[in-house]
Write a structure and sequence with these properties.
Structural class: alpha/beta
Strand content: 15-25%
Radius of gyration: 21 Å
Largest sheet: 5 strands, mixed
Distance between the termini: 44 Å
Shape: globular
């Protein structure tokens, strides 16, 4: 071992090699908390001016794919253009999706998995928002078996079809300490 690369501590006797006591250690997150926090981080990459949404597809406690809402690769997004066609046209949320340059976070996570040849059948989707009807249909066909979401999105048909498909829907209640 090279002595020049060795770190010397003047207070070595004060260093403790024991784990923090339970009282000092922050609580360990559940798996749902862990992956929902990942979805929140992914949402920060969103290029949408209206709503930031993140999605994480997980199977056997391993992340398979992520997605956030934004324009397809190589296409200018609303953030870069500093404008949103849907806002300009005063289109209400949940209507006329064809006027949006972006794809939804769930769609981008599903297409990322497909692009990389990752099998997602039997997986769980963690998403910051409840999927819309278009995403719900894609999720059903992709074989996702469970959706954990944090913010409700008012789409009765999406809820009806997801329930019909027997996909487990979990409204995530955050455990903030």
């Amino acid at each position: 071992m090279d002595p020049a690369r060795t770190t010397r501590y003047s207070n070595a006797e004060n260093l403790t090699m024991f784990p923090l006591s339970e009282a000092l250690r922050p609580p360990r997150p559940s798996w749902d908390e862990y992956f929902m926090e990942m979805a929140e981080v992914v949402s920060k990459r969103s290029t949408c001016l209206r709503r930031q949404v993140g999605a994480v597809i997980v199977k056997d406690k391993h992340i398979l794919a992520t997605g956030y809402n934004g324009a397809p690769r190589g296409i200018d997004n609303c953030l870069e253009l500093s404008t949103c066609l849907r806002q300009e046209l005063k289109v209400p949320s949940g209507e006329r999706q064809e006027f949006c340059r972006g794809s939804h976070a769930e769609q981008n996570a599903l297409t990322q998995a497909a692009y990389h040849g990752v099998k997602i059948s039997g997986a769980t989707l963690y998403c910051t928002h409840m999927p819309c009807i278009t995403c719900a249909k894609m999720i059903i066909n992709a074989g996702i078996v469970r959706i954990v979401f944090q913010n409700f999105y008012p789409d009765d048909l999406a809820v009806q079809m997801l329930n019909e498909s027997r996909i487990e829907l979990v409204l995530f209640a955050d455990r903030k300490m």
